[in-house]
Specification:
Layout lengths: L1 E5 L8 E5 L9 E11 L1 H8 L16 E8 L11 E4 L10 E5 L3 E3 L6 H4 L3 H14 L7 E5 L4 H13 L2 E6 L2 H9 L4 E4 L5 H8 L5 E6 L2 H11 E9 L10 H7 L2 E4 L7 H16 L7 E6 L3 H7 L8 E5 L1
Helix pairs in contact: 3-4, 3-9
Bound molecules: NADP nicotinamide-adenine-dinucleotide phosphate (NAP).
């Protein structure tokens, strides 16, 4: 099989397309013929060797794949060969034509979701669902600002929050991103590159502030976020690429909070909740992963460059 391998941490050029033996599933494992793999920002941090989790080398990147079950190991009852599935983590890596996963890491892919969309489920939708439901404990009567609404997590958050009944505000940095944010569920959109856009956000809430901010770039935005919150507001820090200074007084007067977030910390109960919610939303059409760019597996290095560029417009996926 063809697979991307990383033999040393470094820039995108360390992603090499190689021929490997197709793995065989042991007891409790599932072999999936991957048709598409989702590219997430953390894949690039891991490849660079700067991520909290450092895989042992060599490794194949990717947690998010979608395809068809090829074979199952002894004792596997959840899926059978021929089933359409998406993966939420794998054992051997999703940037490959075949990936081994534990039985609990594969999930049924609804018939109306194609493989490229299926490759954009786990990290983006799992993050958005977990952030809104478990971390922020969002209620229908609240207002959420999706700060970075044009990318994988942001689009998922718009769709979920809108379906839950919240008033949804979203930001993007290009006209195309703003258009996508509006289309995918934002009641109001704002250009996060425009000077003074934070004032526009406050005005849109009647100066009350927002109850929840899902923050994709905290090092840039956290100072202003604390001033955009309502009483008891909370910022969920999903993404950050550096340090930032804030004034804690902005939080005190509002009894507001800033909460760190990691998808990797979820409990099995939370994960079961996430997949049940996502399956229902995908099946009934509420959740519609948006594929912005598809590239062949051989172009994984380009995908890793592109995902860190501004101008997001949905998911980048690799076709395998
Ligand atoms: P993505 O698809 O690359 O999207 C990045 C988003 O950030 C785009 O909407 C982009 O908007 C936006 N952005 C750029 N500049 C911004 C600014 N100044 N203010 C607000 N937003 C800005 O990435 P993703 O998959 O959505 O992930 C977003 C972030 O969350 C990444 O840093 C990722 O590593 C992190 N993340 C963390 C977890 C976790 O467990 N903690 C899980 C998933 C993701 P434009 O391109 O339109 O400017």
């Amino acid at each position: 099989m063809k697979a991307i391998r990383v033999h040393e941490f470094g820039g995108p050029e360390v992603l090499k397309l190689e021929d490997l033996d197709t793995p065989k599933p042991s007891a409790g494992e599932v072999l999936v013929r991957i048709h598409a793999a989702g590219v997430n920002p953390y894949d690039t941090y891991m490849r660079a060797g700067t991520y909290a989790v450092k895989p042992s080398l060599p490794y194949t990147p990717g947690s998010d794949g979608a395809g068809i079950v090829e074979a199952v190991g002894e004792g596997v009852a959840k899926v059978k060969p021929g089933d359409r599935v998406y993966t939420a983590r794998t054992i051997t890596g999703a940037y490959a034509q075949y990936a081994l996963a534990l039985e609990e890491q594969v999930h049924a892919l609804p018939a109306n979701i194609d493989f490229k969309q299926g490759a954009g489920i786990w990290v983006p939708y799992g993050t958005a669902y977990h952030a809104l439901n478990h971390s922020a404990r969002a209620h229908a009567s609240e207002t959420v600002l999706v700060h970075g609404a044009s990318g994988g997590v942001g689009i998922a958050a718009l769709q979920i929050a809108r379906a839950m009944g919240l008033t949804v505000l979203g930001t993007a940095g290009t006209p195309k991103g703003l258009e996508i944010a509006k289309r995918e569920g934002a009641h109001h959109v704002f250009d996060h590159l425009k000077s003074g856009y934070q004032e526009e956000i406050l005005r849109a809430t009647g100066s009350r502030g927002v109850d929840i901010i899902l923050e994709m770039l905290a090092n840039v935005n956290l100072f202003h976020d604390t001033r955009l919150l309502s009483t008891n507001g909370r910022v969920i820090v999903i993404g950050s690429r550096g340090e930032v200074t804030i004034n804690p007084r902005e939080l005190m007067g509002r009894r507001a909070s800033i909460r760190g977030f990691t998808l990797w910390g979820i409990t099995p109960e939370e994960e079961a909740d996430i997949h049940a919610g996502l399956f229902a939303g995908l099946e009934n059409g509420t959740l519609r992963p948006v594929v912005g760019k598809e590239l062949p597996l051989a172009e994984a290095a380009r995908a890793h460059k592109d995902i860190l560029e501004p101008g997001s417009a949905g998911k980048i996926v690799l076709t395998c």
